[in-house]
Amino acid sequence: MPTDIEIARAARLKPIAAIADRAGIPQEALNPYGKFIAKVDTSAIPDFASKPDGKLILVTAISPTPAGEGKTTTTVGLGDGLSRIGRNTMIALREPSLGPCFGVKGGAAGGGYAQVVPMEQINLHFTGDFHAITSAHNLLAAMIDNHVYWGNALGLDTRYIAWRRVMDMNDRALRSTVSSLGGASNGFPREDGFDITVASEVMAIFCLAKDLPDLEERLGRIVIGRTRDKRPVTAAELKATGAMSVLLKDAVMPNLVQTLEGTPAFVHGGPFANIAHGCNSVIATRAALKLADYVVTEAGFGADLGAEKFFDIKCRKAGLKPAAAVVVATVRALKMHGGLAKDSLAREDLAALEAGLANLARHVENIRKFGVPPIVAINNFTSDTAAEHDLIRSFCRNHLGVEAVICRHWAEGGAGTEELANKVVALAEGGEADFAPLYPDVMPLWDKLETVAREIYGAAGLVADAKVRARFAELEGAGHGALPVCVAKTQYSFSADPTLRGAPSGHMVPVRELRLSAGAGFVVAICGDIMTMPGLPREPAAERIHIDANGQIEGLF
Amino acid sequence: MPTDIEIARAARLKPIAAIADRAGIPQEALNPYGKFIAKVDTSAIPDFASKPDGKLILVTAISPTPAGEGKTTTTVGLGDGLSRIGRNTMIALREPSLGPCFGVKGGAAGGGYAQVVPMEQINLHFTGDFHAITSAHNLLAAMIDNHVYWGNALGLDTRYIAWRRVMDMNDRALRSTVSSLGGASNGFPREDGFDITVASEVMAIFCLAKDLPDLEERLGRIVIGRTRDKRPVTAAELKATGAMSVLLKDAVMPNLVQTLEGTPAFVHGGPFANIAHGCNSVIATRAALKLADYVVTEAGFGADLGAEKFFDIKCRKAGLKPAAAVVVATVRALKMHGGLAKDSLAREDLAALEAGLANLARHVENIRKFGVPPIVAINNFTSDTAAEHDLIRSFCRNHLGVEAVICRHWAEGGAGTEELANKVVALAEGGEADFAPLYPDVMPLWDKLETVAREIYGAAGLVADAKVRARFAELEGAGHGALPVCVAKTQYSFSADPTLRGAPSGHMVPVRELRLSAGAGFVVAICGDIMTMPGLPREPAAERIHIDANGQIEGLF
């Protein structure tokens, strides 16, 4: 089998105008970025707003392990499978972040015969959305310090400025800094620091806004700090939001690309799945629903984090009603959940597999709590055995009452997901879906978090010290009690302990901090360590990345 | 007269494919960015390398004053004028920097009826070149700190890391920082800081490289610091240059846009005119020369800085032979050089004008020292009088032996520069040009700088303390003696004192510091204060910039 990059290079891409045509997007609505990428101006699509919505299919996964699950590949593969069986389909994915490409992991555009292309551009600057978000974020930061410099009319307490700067780079040296040094003409020295761009609240806002005016209104609600008498100060008070919106004006248009098999895909927005909600933009998802009968999308991390936030934040706020959810698992990852080490995954081990199925089972049951019918996709690996596949299928059928379908999109593209596609259609059209968020808006923030902990994580409850509890009360008192809670915790376990695989229960979830993202419209509950600026490894991928003698990029993937 | 933005909005732009067609660029060579901008892949233009070169016309100016000269407008106007008189013409300009758009000045794409469009995109993210340069620069910075973090095998002395970070933002708080605070996992704390992106050596390299392989080689030569035993350490030793080149792979293709009258223009690259050489990319200029019979380009600041660096750095290194140079002046600015205050410029004052002509005279004589025939363009203002115009024309004819042509491109577009265009053609085709740099490569660095000071600035000589003199010797000893010298000094005067207007002489030029830009291929001589990260004013333009109810950007220009 050729490598991902060999497959991507061998692909004959269709001109983006042909892909747009297939998606029912007229040429007037296209703003091309090169030959194979275009931003789509939906206001130029006739009768766009009055079109009926297609069916929304979420692809989520078991708790991630080092073995890998293949959520993005399955999303792309399912999209291609639906296309193959004659459904008018679009895919909606997050944009990859540039920083991590130079670290360990390489790109994020699928793999094998289930990729979105052109993968090099998608993984690098793409259409510049993340650069625009970086600029908008940092303009606000510059205006805050500039406001203080020129007299601080708003009376900002510079010890409590909550708005850090951002860069789309893995750069640990910027995590914690002191800025405005070097004398009076450089301002008032203070503690400062940088997050990676995907952790910016501007990114979360970008992905939750329904249009540009809504985006601007949300930017205005960002709380950047407080006065000495503890009054919150917003971006609107700094008069920053008009210019920030101008910087984001083109970026908000969704980016159209194609899969290797020519299925149209929107790749747009990409908030961190820990400090934010971890799914592509509402604008792209809603546009795709207008254009296609089936929209396949994915959410970050495992279903306990990604799907829960997709449902409780994105779907709740955007009024989306998912028709079905695909839970991706691999035999290898399930065996790790069952206790095997990574170097023992190649051999058949039905006992470990059976033990690991507890993780899958919990996720499947959780999906049902949102009124969304689940189905299991087993992303096939060459080391899988027939007995292992049989065990998963019978377990799913007998114990969970769901179908488990073996998928071979990595090796076969859409042909490898036809069975999954047919079953997803049957599920989505079966009338079973009756989506509702897990908790109502009116529930207190503490109770919302406790509900997620008990219902989704299998926890016994929350633990938090007095200061954190006081912060819950403070945010309720300030009128933020109706917001949903965005949990930042380890993605590797249902618990807050990343080493607890499988389906731990009865644990307590430690709440360390509560942060307000008033513009995005959620409260972040930090349950464990959270890293908002990654570092580079000892031998970063950047050292191997180069342009070869044929002008092709090597080492990026 | 409508405002710049009203004119730009009223313009009916031609599709970029039509502009490309006019420039002889086939569709296969176009990578569109929206409907009116494209990057041009010159390798897809048949017989490109073997085409003969057109004639290169430099637009430069007198020493700038607060009255304004209109160098960019004149460049655009002359391009349109040459088109009108039937010459196959292209324009080559710098890209505007994003940061300053939010400060005082607004955009930089010409004005009146002499603009390049679409001006909003050009002034904002454009094709993302500056973002790509920012990313490449900061990737190297991250790799430096990462190298130190993981053991510092190269033995970098962290007190002498010369590679700061960059951001395309006016943000004084970032000028001087301490980074890597917050504990061992964030690295080794050190003094650090940010420059604005246009001040990056990557920007200078980008603009001087002849192609992508040359770019990569130059990136590798960047000296980022030194070891404890004072050995210089390069970007190549950090293995950063492959990934940096990958980030710049698309950016190096020149950006094609159009003037309001449909003249094709490359707008590409934009290094600071103080710490760097201040003109658009060699790649764009050379491509324009292959495509057009006449190429009009501009250089930053007045001719003492901009034209001198254009000739001694860009033309020397890229093998360009300018055919003529236009020195732009205004009656108002000349009267300021003659001693008038800004609020007294509206009334006729022949005595002040005559006194101020000394500044123009020095610049015109300087141009001749490079073997390039000069011509003077008087950018007309409505307050100018016939007597003032007559005085300039007769002074130029009788004392300088050059033509001075009144230009009305701001109000009339190319129709207002037809006379200038005809005279530029006569000059360029007169066989008078015999370009040579001011000094040879082999002259010692100190003597090169002294030559510029005496010949161009009218100075009596240089002053420098022992430490600075030792630095000259150090760079000579390290093998950098053959590089040209890039002077960073005030643009407002021939001297180092910005308040000395007119044509001061006999002054001494203080040399404060000598910096090596080994990748760009020059040595920066800092003669006075130099600001590499601007700040925002008390009431930044950003506060007024917004999207209006019709979806149009207000306040940017």
From TrEMBL, chains A, B:
Pathway: One-carbon metabolism; tetrahydrofolate interconversion. It is an enzyme of class 6 (ligase). Its EC number is 6.3.4.3. ATP binds at residues 65-72. Pfam families: FTHFS. One of its GO terms (molecular function) is ATP binding. It catalyses: (6S)-5,6,7,8-tetrahydrofolate + formate + ATP = (6R)-10-formyltetrahydrofolate + ADP + phosphate. InterPro entries: Formate_THF_ligase, Formate_THF_ligase_CS, P-loop_NTPase. Keywords: ATP-binding, Ligase, Nucleotide-binding, One-carbon metabolism. GO terms for biological process: tetrahydrofolate interconversion. Belongs to the formate--tetrahydrofolate ligase family. This is Formate--tetrahydrofolate ligase. It comes from Bosea psychrotolerans.
